[in-house]
Amino acid sequence: MPAAGLISDKLTLRMLRYFYVLSQTRHFGQAADRLNITTSPLSHKIKELESLLGVTLFLRNSRNVELTEAGEALQNECDHLFQVVEHAVHRVQRVAEAGRGVVKLGLVSSAFWSGLGQHLGAFQQRYPDQQIDLVEANPEQQKRMVIEHQIDVGLVRFADAMNIHPLSARKLTEETFVVAMTRQHPLARHNRLSLDALRDAEFALFNRRNSASADLFINECKKRNLVPKIIKEFVEPNTLMAYVAHSDSVTIVPSSFANHGWDNIRFVPLKEAIGAGLYAIYDRSTLSPSAHAFVSAFGQSDKR
Prior knowledge:
single chain; D-Maltodextrin-Binding Protein, domain 2; 3 domains; disordered C terminus; WH_DNA-bd_sf; Transcriptional regulator, LysR family; DNA-binding
């Protein structure tokens, strides 16, 4: 077995990368394509790695390769290694961007209907040297991206800002849910609606895998022994509203949706106040001065 110091001196990240891709594809041709090389240098690096480690990593035949026990062990170690490398790269980039005054901001598309555009303009006027980089992503993706330091701040709705330890959240807008339907819908004649009045309605809601808003509404109904009849779920707000505008379904959306010029849609307030405001989510321990300035300028009150 080669000495540990000798191995570390000669072992390269490229060797491990080649091994890792081959361990995933189990095929030299496919691995070479993914690495954008030919099979010859790939085969050479694998043999070099096996010689350096003093173990056989693959069992080869004319078409495919299989991992040995040692190969499986190295694949598991590479899983962890490349996650650490990726995290380190993102972390270094975040530090560099913070120094340049760059704020990576995740958001749901409906944030603009809650006044995000006006706030961005006011923020850039107040801090002309700061740069905002917008990244559209659903709430679950944003939480992961904040934890992995791919974004500094995420913008989500109230339901997705609950129970997010170790992250923190800050309220940005004061909103509640309203009922949206076509102007011809029988419920459209009301000036205010209770959840009980929606007992027989058919709902189109946001997809529950991407956002907790729908579950928040459903839980509020269950508290009153109501079970909403959900016939459609959508990811994008524009698609949801377009469907409601051409169907007999109703939906529950944040009150700021009424700020957008929807054709043939009427918005009716709910008697029950169900929170739907926009919240910033972030990692308090790593929040850059630029990101902190953005959140503080927009935010109203801390939410623990």
